[in-house]
Design goal:
homodimer; 207 residues; mainly alpha; Tetracycline Repressor, domain 2; 11 helices; DNA-binding
Chain lengths: 207, 207
DNA sequence: ATGGAATTGACCAATGTGGTCAATAGGAGA
DNA sequence: TCTCCTATTGACCACATTGGTCAATTCCAT
């Protein structure tokens, strides 16, 4: 049924998908209104249900569609060639911030999907829908250069500390930036301080 | 109007408050149903609206009522006498875990209140409702013993790292414990590993 | 027995829902 | 111009559920 939809003008496709994404993102499945979606997409009710048989199907389509966009953009980046754990995690943090800036609605959508309580949806939203994310997450810590660590250091725990620190710092920065219409920022200024934290931890854990 | 309510049998009070707390916690203001609340509290519709003039008033009452419970329990504990930053933050982390275990619904309620989008409520839920939390949070870092740190260390950043680490570790533990009906746990076993992280950071930042 | 408070639950108007379908518009090919 | 098919419309529907009311009843202390 959705194959018809994909033959539509790209622009109309986008209008529909974005309208739906936003509605679901900030109301969740149950409270999201198909009436609102068609209104803000500028199409008729009938058309929406012509392409998607029902609300649930639309919701699940969005899920698969946008996770692909996000993951493609995230993993074509070359972070994983970098074997120094600090550099890699810093790059990942910055790249994540860029994505959050570029597609905030998608992040909101998955955040709300993660806590979705609607009885209609939570059974369909099998763990497989989140598997991709889980697997992606674990790749972050693969193939790290272990030779740089001091002898006798518990490396896994050191990496925990490093990643919690960069995550904490990243959240702090992002919560400060949130809402700013500062689209030209490439975060170099915002993340300058990250290097201070990194130096402190390098001194502690690296040779 | 709520003064009448406080003269009720404690047990009936609790039934009503808990029913409402749970309903709001996992549905948010709009989707929460007063019908469900009275059903699960075992009272009639009329009685609920006899004590609380309307849904909004009930919601705001819950807000003030439970934050007090939480804060009282949290701040009568003596964490703030401890001036060693590691000990203090570890105590706080454990105490927070206990509270999350003891009152998970209250945490869920405030989590959902924090992201509440209902137009009816978000204007009433002024920042003042969260001020208490913010002020409490800042107390966590007051009056720390600074004499233990190495010379030349950026102490604020070191404290950031320590607190992000303990927070990260605490979240990891709690997400593993979540849902377990393990009421006798006092977390000493779960948090044993915390000392390893603490030692690593002490070696880095303390004299 | 009396009076006042606590409590009930049937009832209501209102709103908004997801989804349908007969009707129309648009445009490509003849 | 006519045909035919698809894209698109939006009025319409049955239904569920909502927050809130209120006259009636139960309870109980005096």
């Amino acid at each position: 049924m959705t194959s018809k939809f994909l033959n539509l003008h790209k622009e109309k496709q986008q209008r529909i998908l974005n309208a739906a994404l936003n509605e679901f993102a900030n109301k969740g499945f149950d409270r999201a209104s198909t009436n609102e979606i068609v209104k803000s997409a500028g199409i008729s009710k009938g058309l929406l249900f012509h392409y998607f048989n029902n609300k649930k199907e639309l919701y699940l389509f969005l899920h698969e569609y946008f996770i692909e966009i996000l993951m493609k953009e995230f993993f074509t980046s070359e972070h994983f060639a970098e074997r120094d754990v600090f550099e890699r995690l810093k790059k990942i943090m910055i790249s994540k911030s860029h994505l959050m800036k570029k597609y905030p609605e998608i992040f909101d959508f998955y955040m709300s999907a993660y806590i979705e309580t609607s009885s209609e949806i939570k059974n369909e939203l099998t763990s497989s829908h989140f598997d991709l994310m889980a697997r992606s997450y674990s790749r972050i810590f693969e193939n790290i250069d272990t030779s740089k660590f001091k002898e006798g250091i518990d490396m896994n725990k050191a990496i925990d500390i490093i990643s919690w620190t960069l995550e904490g710092y990243g959240n702090q920065v992002m919560s400060g930036v949130k809402g700013l219409r500062n689209s030209e920022a490439d975060f170099t200024r915002e993340f300058a301080e990250a290097d201070v934290y990194i130096d402190m931890l390098k001194r502690a854990f690296y040779k």
